[in-house]
Amino acid sequence: MLGDDNLYSKFVGFLKITLPLAALALMSTVFLFARAPTQDSAVPYAEIEEVAREPRLSGAQVSGVADDGSVIQLTAETARPLGDFLLVETMFASIDVVNGTHIDIRAGRGEINNATRIARLTGLARIETSNGYEMETAGITANLTTGQITSDGALEIQAPFGSLTAGQMIIETPEGMGGQVMLFQNGVRLVYTPQQ
Question: More exposed terminus of the chain, fewer Cβ within 10 Å: N or C?
Answer without folding.
Answer: C
